[in-house]
Write a structure and sequence with these properties.
The chain is of the alpha/beta class. It is 43% helix and 16% strand. The chain has helices spanning 9-12, 36-46, 66-74, 85-99, 113-126, 154-158, 166-178, 180-190, 210-217, 220-235, 247-253; strands spanning 3-4, 16-21, 53-59, 78-81, 104-109, 130-136, 150-153, 198-200, 205-207. This is NYN domain-containing protein. Residues 16-117 form the NYN domain. InterPro entries: Marf1, NYN.
């Protein structure tokens, strides 16, 4: 069951980082990619999250069109390509944690919460002070041991901006233009302007232009790099160390573990 609790005072004006796994939660057919960011922001603001919001989409983007990538980037979403979503999220979490001490909020949009749950559990329950929100395409069969303050179905979340009338949409557009200076200040305070628009984690390639990015991931050299990366990971016994749940770590998170949904 999805639920939406209002933001607690300590999280209302703090940073909210959104990580979106586009491979498990794709953009629905016919949906304008340019509406993803406004929809996420609307859903969060409806719950009282008024602080800076940063959105990063990650996954295998080889077959994602340049048009969609440009639409996402044009609304401020950072784009990261890579083959291993777990490794990408782990690195993003560590980097974000260093720059954003609690209280802060983090939101994961993915159907693979079970694969990310141990990493998020460490972040939320061991370090403390981090608020967690989730979104997924269908209600998970099992509820993880993660403690969340809000959960959405992906399509429901994407419809958040439709709740406003056309008049409200026009009003928002005017306010957006009027508050451009404030938004730029927020971006500078959170370091969002320093983040590259497009990143390929397989090759360490960074750029600001979508054509360069799509050209890069379509090149033979890029394919060869990813092939070598796959081979090296298959040979590396340490590859699964971030995704494997070890007993002692699991015990630290067990107090908040819940049962199968059907038994609640």
């Amino acid at each position: 069951m999805t639920f939406h609790s209002q933001a607690k005072p300590e999280y209302a004006k703090s940073e909210t980082m959104v990580w979106w796994d586009i491979n498990s939660c794709p953009i629905p057919d016919g949906y304008d990619a340019g509406r993803v960011s406004p929809s996420i922001e609307s859903a969060l603001k409806n719950l009282g999250y008024s602080g800076p919001i940063t959105i990063t989409v990650f996954g295998n983007l080889e077959y994602t069109s340049a048009y969609i990538l440009q639409r996402l980037s044009s609304t401020g979403i950072h784009v990261i390509h890579g083959l291993d979503a777990r490794s990408i999220l782990f690195d993003l979490l560590l980097g974000w944690q260093d720059d954003n001490p609690p209280p802060c909020s983090m939101m994961l949009i993915s159907d693979k919460v079970d694969e990310f749950s141990m990493t998020l559990c460490r972040q939320q329950q061991i370090f403390g002070g981090y608020n967690l929100l989730l979104a997924y395409t269908s209600i998970p069969k099992y509820v993880s041991f993660l403690v969340t303050s809000a959960e959405w179905l992906w399509k429901s979340l994407l419809g958040a901006d439709e709740m406003n009338s056309k008049q409200e949409t026009r009003r928002h557009s005017v306010l957006h233009k009027c508050s451009e200076t404030d938004e730029m200040d927020n971006k500078q305070q959170t370091g969002r302007d320093s983040l590259p628009r497009f990143v390929c984690t397989s090759c360490g390639f960074l750029c600001e232009i979508v054509e360069r990015f799509t050209n890069h991931i379509s090149r033979e050299e890029h394919a060869q790099s990813e092939t070598m990366l796959k081979i090296s990971k298959m040979r590396d016994p340490e590859f699964e160390k971030y995704s494997t749940v070890e007993s002692e770590d699991e015990e630290e998170c067990v107090p908040n573990k819940k049962q199968k949904k059907g038994s609640e």
